[in-house]
Amino acid sequence: MANVPQPTSAFQVALHAMSLPQAWRKLGPAPVVAAIMLILIVLAVILAPLYVPHNPMSMDSANRLQPSGGDFWIGTDAYGRDLFSRVVTGGQVSLLIGIGAAVTSVILGLLIGLVAGFFRWADGIIMRIMDSLMAIPAILLAIALVSLVGPSVMSVIVAITIPEVPRVVRLVRSVVLSAREEPYIEAALALGSSMPKILWQHLMPNTIAPLIVQGTYICASAILIEAILSFLGAGVSTEIPTWGNIMAEGRDYFRVNPGLIFWPGLMLSLCILSINLLGDTARDVLDPRLKKRES
Amino acid sequence: MLGYIFRRIIAIIPVMVIVAVFVFLLLRLTPGDPAAILAGDNATPEQLERIRNRLGLADPLHIQFINWIDQLLRGDLGTSLISGTDVSAMIGSRIWPTINIGVMTIIISVLLAVPMGVLAAWRHRSWVDYLVMTFSVLGFSIPVFVIGYIFIQIFSIELRALPIQGYRAPSEDFIGFLQRAILPSLTLATIYVALIARMTRASMLEVLGEDYIRTARAKCVRENLVLFRHALRNASVPIMTIIGTGFALLISGVVVTESVFNIPGIGRLTVDAILARDYPVIQAMILLTAGIYVLVNLIIDISYTLIDPRIRY
Amino acid sequence: MKFKSRTFDQAHTVLALRELSVNLAGRPDIAPILDRISLDIRAGETACLVGESGSGKSVTSLAVMGLLPPDALEVTGGGIKLGERDLRAMSSPDLRRLRGRRMAMIFQEPMTALNPVMRVGDQIDEVLRVHTDLSPRDREAKVLDMLEQVQLPDIKRMFRSYPHQLSGGQRQRIMIAMALVLEPELLIADEPTTALDVTTQGQILKLIADLQERHGTAVLFITHDMGVVAEIADTVHVMQHGRIVESAPVEQLLRAPKEAYTTQLLKSVPSLVPRRVREATHTENVLDVRAMTKVYGGGGLIFRSEGTRAANEVSLSVARGRTLGIVGESGSGKSTVARCIMRLVDPTDGEIRVVGTDIARLSRGKLRPHRRHIQIVFQDPFRSLNPRWTVGRSLVEGPLNFGTDRSEAMKHAGDLMELVGLPRDALDRYPHQFSGGQRQRIAIARAVAMQPDVLVADEAVSALDVSIQAQVLELLADIQEKLGVAILFITHDLRVAAQICDDVVVMQHGNVVEYGSAPEVLADPKHDYTRALIAAAPGREWDFANFRPLEQSA
What we know:
The complex is a heterotrimer. By secondary structure, chain A is mainly alpha-helical.
């Protein structure tokens, strides 16, 4: 108000001037390694049908629980199926679920969050519902849903999306709430812009960067939750290989062949790790609040 | 202050009501005949009829809801479809292992995570920082049960230092309890530590950039005083918030960990109930965990006032 | 005007900077932030470091304190001596021991410089605990004595208060108490009154001067405000682009500046003497506010509260082509009035007539057609333009809303850029490519693009350096002349008000306490509060732009 904001000092200018080269140095090797790793995993998974040595579904009782080496690079499972072929093929469903859940939760969350952030009358009721959804542990809700609706890729995506939506809504709403206090929004009001126009043209773009970050985290966590659901027996039908299913079936034979959990677990973890690392990098680069904090 | 606590407790009611409505509709609005879903594919008509009667599925929806809420308010969680026992009794007999391991996990997590986060923020961009951040990213990336199996493989199978699975009540055999509880607690703690350490670091980094930290340094307060006396207290509100919201992760983790380590807690109870489609138990568990979550966060909200004098209601 | 004219030839030198240079860490290739700064401050002397933003004032103070951000800035040459001690040769534990004991610092933002979760008494006490072996009782006695010295009321209660329970002025007093409790030889004050209201500022300046006299402290005072310089300085050092361009005793510098930059800086300081009265060319009021009231809060279902009367029965009017100023301190309600008139908040009661129509109670939809008559320019040039939009897109947003054809709107936007003194091709650039002053020009162009009848300027020049401020004020006057727009100018700065306003409204606690033509209100105030406000304006007896006391020009 009457207070003059501090003039930008040379000191702040200095910090600003160096933020870019410093950021590049700061990014370091982690995101580069993560990106290469993720590209390799995705390519390996998508192109799996072209190169896998065995049919991932064909059982062979003569070759049950083979150790690694020989014809089976990392051994076979309890039904004599080639573990390597199953692990790389299994990524297809896992990735599909991860991306599917991320896209649906971001879109739903964005729409609900924009409404909650800008229309006061809607805010109270929407946020109460979101609070309630957040109070239900995600895994419980997801297994309950899948066990009721029946195991399919679609129901798993829905089951993972529902508990994620409130988080996206909260994020979008908080971005909108802080952005709507900005003078340029008030200026737009004074210029006679309508509410929907302000919402879409001025406010929505502010949410894109945080949503990209949030989307990567949701993708990672969806792949993780799929694995947990399958592990608990509430995932995609056991006939389809997914990372979670392979590990779930491997549970009982874990002490005979730890590779049954180790190899799919490794693939899954590397995949999630690289997505998370890229998410962190995106956040560091895109979130100006954080950039300020880090300088 | 009392008025604030009162208002916060009142504010819980709509949240719990919405949870209850949600849980109620979850079964009823699922496409298909709820009784058929619960009974499974090979059910006889008599079995279907029995389930319908037990859950009152023949009544109109609103009557069912009112009856159910009425039951709940009288403290009656219903009876299991499978065993016919009282659900509250089932929960009562299975809750202690979960509480014991849960408390142990929280203590371990906070004791590990907060110093890790403070150190990482203080030595920002040093090897300590990178180590903490690496650990925290890993903690988010490995499924809980894989961590559990890795622990079992290392400590129980390779080193033979600890029992593989099972549970002992601490009142009967405290050493036995610790031996069996330590791996599940560490397993559960991994993701919680990752979460809290990350938030502590971020919050501390923000606070360390504040003017009053510069003031503290300008009057020559030793660096450890700056960190713990001036910075950590200011940074603690977001840390406590994440401990509260992370509680949901903990509950989810319990479900998995109890399956891995074969612990007879309510997590196992829930998984078994869901797989057997024992709906009264599922309903009760969702309500219970949501209630615990809301309560924990209420307590955390109220305790903000103890930390930050600016928060007065 | 009475300047300080003490001599310090006898006094010993407390702080000596010799050829001090500071660079971006690891970047010796680019221009230094501080370029071979030399200055001396002697015991009891107040040296003012004055300059515009980016001149290196704050970096100088942080370098002396050894508080430069370690990864960003580093001292690359020269010497810093405190008494006989060479600070650059010192180890960091030794340097830390000196801070607080031998040299202390107070900062611009008393709101953020105190730890919000510690009682202020404990924060002062901490200095004693770290640096002395006094017993707890002695420490408390000393802290209370210090609180007394900084003239805080009810010191026992103050001791136990948290920062958020105190006003800005009180917090700055706490900061001063904390800085001076160990009687350091050197006090560095970095814009300590900039964030305070003018009446509080006067009190704090006097307090610093009193304590300095009592303890013989050397003070390095950093400010951008020439008025403050005139009030408190013994010696003035003018900084620009990291260099000291001129150093002189205060009176000499203000009467006969030697350097062109100093001269230009002084010429930019707006005079407190109201500008010449303009003949009213129109009598038609384009803005008419009648008994407008805004109550914040209040209501509540269970816990009914009184609410705050941010504006109480405010009435004012502006004729076409005229400028009405609303002056007052923070919390006076002046910004609330502006926001109500813009209908950015809804007034609780009263009438707001814009070109004849009462808009106070129109629904959002009904209001929209009337928006074009009244436009606003905000204080913060860094937040008032959408950073993701090109300047051109921002400029045509309003006209497009009112059905103007895009290509025509763009063409007009180009004309407007020239009107505000920016190149046409700047339309394709983004806000971050412009300086603060340029952005404020763009914001003005955006408002003018609507061809409004009334332009509300809410502290529109307060965030700008004086030389930029002068240019923007000139631009506003120019636009008014060309377009005949009425301006409602909200400011806390009486100097600015005197230069641009035809009429002035003085507000206090939501009420209008005085309303009249600018010469009447500013030269011959009737109300006590107005008088106090004018009396508190620092350097009010000096005519900076003409290098002479005001009496001569009057």
